[in-house]
């Protein structure tokens, strides 16, 4: 049977990482992969995570299975972090998943089960896994305009116009904050307008929130998802702890299905547990337990928040430094959007040819769509990147 297999498209970012490793130049800069790195180029284990892990090792009495939806205490802690008190708890079904990707995948499967004819509207561009998983699951993806490369901001009129092409029951996938790959986000007026459109047209929002705390702050970054969740009859939320807890490899995510009709028979909750059972049975527990331990311990929570805030402010400072340097070199404000963007990424909005030129001429490694990982920079490499951008003629 294996002779029938066809090669699948290679992951472009992983291929880029390999090229970076093979590049002998000292000044090379890796802006490709989507993990946070500090000024030393290290993806650190957060202080609170270390303490929580030690506590779990010391105190954990069993490793017997948890529930199919994971430990309910994890769901409660995450719901509190993401939604605060925007939605009553009994309206939320939730299940732990292997990372945010697991939550995205399970959400798509749930959509397919509940409404096989639904299409999913995705931003242009979006995280490539959204599109590839939709294809794999067999759901039609429809693209809505989002990023305006000429301004570096959201093309909001285009977005609304395209969403008007959705029909009742279609799903609209939104990034909760820190849009990947563009870094351009909706403001509160725009979130409000999207909510009105969703309700007018009977569209179901699905919010993917993978960077809470990386943009404007933990509460600020959740404002959009809270508004959506409290204003529409039904919605889905896929959350990831990979970035804000720095536990990438622990595969820690949560899928929420919210229904304002309540969940009297527990049908939504049972369906999420069923979906887990079919795909991998019990979800991973270690990362979820670390997150629960941190969020439920005031001291650990405070320390985690402080370290996350330092991370966020560090990325903002790099954004400002890069925008300033580009302003100085170009004598114009046309790169000002880099300081306006939020999160780990910014899309430069240039061509694959110029991205390639920057790699060949200056050892700058960014994804072909011109996404740069701000956290891949430090104070010394910002001027190198700025010069490469100007020299390439971006
Ligand atoms: N959604 C978006 C938009 C992301 O950028 C990511 C991380 N690259 C995820 C979901 C999921 O990440 P993970 O599966 O590593 O938790």
* Record field, number of beta strands: 13
Q: How far is the N terminus from the C terminus?
A: 48 Å
Number of domains: 2
Mean pLDDT: 96
CATH class call of the largest domain:
Alpha Beta
Q: Per DSSP, what share of the residues sits in E-state strands of 2 or more residues?
A: 5-15%
Question: What can you tell me about this protein's structure?
Answer:
This is Amino acid aminotransferase. 46% of the residues lie in helices and 14% in strands. The chain has 394 residues and is α/β, with parallel strands linked by helices. The chain has 2 domains: 10-45 and 305-392, Aspartate Aminotransferase, domain 1, CATH 3.90.1150.10; 65-296, 3-Layer(aba) Sandwich (Aspartate Aminotransferase, domain 2), CATH 3.40.640. It has a 7-stranded mixed sheet, with helices on both faces. A two-stranded parallel ribbon has the order 1-12. Helix 5 links the parallel strand 3 and strand 4. Helix 2 (47-59) crosses helix 11 and helix 7 runs parallel beside helix 9. It is globular. The model has no long low-confidence stretch (mean pLDDT 96). Bound molecules: 4'-deoxy-4'-aminopyridoxal-5'-phosphate (PMP).
Q: Outline of this structure?
A:
The chain has 15 helices and 13 strands. It is an alpha/beta fold and 394 residues long. The chain folds into two domains: 124 residues, Aspartate Aminotransferase, domain 1; 232 residues, Type I PLP-dependent aspartate aminotransferase-like (Major domain) (Aspartate Aminotransferase, domain 2), CATH 3.40.640.10.
